[in-house]
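Sequence in, structure out.
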Amino acid sequence: MRVIYIDILLAINLAVDYLLLFGTARLAGAKYERLKGLLGASVGAIYSIIIIFEVSKTVFAATKLAVSAIMIFAAFGKRNLKEFTRLLTVFYICGFLFSGFMMLLNYFTKTDSFYIKGGIVYYEISAMEIVFSGTAAFFVTEILRRLFRHGEPEGACMAKIYFNKKCTVLKGFTDTGNSLSEPFSGSPVAMADIKSMEKILPEEMAEEIKNSDMSTRFGLKPVFCKTVSGSVLIKTFRPDKVLIENEKGVFTAEDILIGASENVPENTLIFGKNVLLKKEGKIFSEV
């Protein structure tokens, strides 16, 4: 009879589920917050204890799907049905990738440490092997993310920013020397002029952005930007959606933050090369 140590089971599944949720966010281009990701991973880790009980395959399948849905909800918040289903699907794809690497590793190491029961995995292997497998799976998700995206903003374009049930259309330009991102989430930051943003932002929120303090009211995220004159504090917000139109079609700018500044030309949005675009398949006039 195999001996399963609960502490090892919980620790491994917490780490693995966190990596899977992070990979899901990267592959799906979804906003990812570490604390929410940890909450979702904790749900999966606690569920892994079911491996020590005698439960039918039907119950395993039903409960695993339900727990996976709870993990997605905990990590990514409330979503519409289409987006929620997409995240759940990507989550399972990441799980298959990770399991594939673990099985490949087990094949070459030829140990009996790899144990699966009803979809719950238990590894009696070293922490380095877990890190190696997780890292390898993450690189695969990064490659897939690049393959399923349709490039980066290039040259001039038109940008449509949605926020607070309002939208504004700006001229978009790519700054090839700009790779500004929010340090905690890793989200790329595009810069817009403050006057254009005042058209879609609540008045108090716009005033808060103009202040030079480190306030995070209204969900604002302070980001330091280096310029020729030194470091400048930029307050950013996450729009509901940003659409980009160029000669190749209409795209969604993924997981993007908008920073508002008086130093940006009026009616202009400036992108960095770190912004990734996803094909929308619609003409600009339809969205």
